[in-house]
């Protein structure tokens, strides 16, 4: 039995950029632009569009500070003046960065060497400002000062707007002293801008205890400044989910119920205390798992480390199980066991944008595992360390939104076999060879989501694991090819593998008559090598036929969700091709049910 479990956090980072989001993007009605990908966070471009008049002085207004009382070029145009001048060149008050400079020159080239009126020059300024808002800081803009252009030279002054007063309106469970550390710096020489505010919003919104962070802008106290108020709304102090599914191990309890509860910011620092409980009761199992049961408990605590998005935490897991089956066979087999582990971890965002994210992480873990069969106990102890990277990128293909997700982890460790159990041979050679050994593995995964048309989404998902040395991994470190998260036509009783690959492709259609209902068709495929060690291959270093296996399945699914509170999915999958040699499967098809109720 695989004895490694990981908790799924209640607070989701990029989960809003998901299959559901892509479906919604095509059915958002008046709340979204058709075909536009909905992503969390604040956008500098949107803020600039709404508060354009606040961020920059009106170029059409007279410059009273210099005592100028003559109308500006724009005012002359509005007054019907038709003066036209041969414009030779446009000149900026300061050089722009490479990409912005090239695009500015493209704009200028289209108008240089022509007879231009005041309205034409204002148009050049507007085109220039639109480019600056895309390519540079959102508060950077070009101003057209009062000037004499009889020599054919038009001057633009590059202005860099400033954030003036920054106020805090915090109603969340995270204390003001903590939230204030996330506000953009006001140190001398540092510029606060909309990009810094957007980053502040992302970091604050990710903290447990905060529902949403948003900013409101108002005219500043000085010319060229904007006052900002950071509005922090609270999240629920307690979040929870009730779960029921049939995804457990067939022989020790496939039908499971559970709950996950999280306390948001109990210490007021953006921390989180979370617990998870699962139980497969013996009376709710089928004939294969009759009398079997499994209980799983996990407790974790994580908190910010600094104020730049880094988080660290510790997690404890415990699982106990008893194998089920027909009465006489169950008593003869006498299968039972337990595992507990403690894991510490840290994560840090390398890139955090509304449309892209890259996070790196590191972890250390210690596990104790016990399994008993036929009254003979096997005990192992594992120490592991790993480094990981994960992220996503939102984009478009043929004007339709898509999302690419990826993750990878390199893990190394040592397993110490305290009691080999029934795996020992008469001479004890196997026992001595397995007493202590090192191992390493690489796990990679990825997913591509593409909106084909409103309501229709394509998904391609895959993951793989590679055992780097030729060592047989402990079952807790192996990869599973079957079950609800693998090839869905097979139950999780398939042998786990040292290395292998899974691929799944899915087409999902939203069923418009019933909001929240969707149907999918899919194909799954898995390949794996059960053991990489010479021992499992008979000591010859060769590959035996039943050491490799390929499994395939196809099926349909029906999903329904009611807002974010309730969801249920039913999946029917049927095997394709023959069952691999020495792999027992009671059925040729599987039905998976998963229900969640948030509170």
TrEMBL record:
Residues 224-533 form the Haemolysin activator HlyB C-terminal domain. PANTHER family: HEME_HEMOPEXIN TRANSPORTER PROTEIN HUXB, SLR1661 PROTEIN. Keywords: Signal. Residues 1-28 form the signal peptide. The lineage of its organism: Bacteria, Pseudomonadati, Pseudomonadota, Gammaproteobacteria, Lysobacterales. GO terms for cellular component: type V protein secretion system complex. The keyword Cell inner membrane does not apply. This is ShlB/FhaC/HecB family hemolysin secretion/activation protein. InterPro entries: Hemolysn_activator_HlyB_C, TPS_OM_transporter. It comes from the Bacteria. GO terms for biological process: protein secretion by the type V secretion system. It comes from Dyella monticola. The keyword Iron does not apply. GO terms for molecular function: protein transmembrane transporter activity.
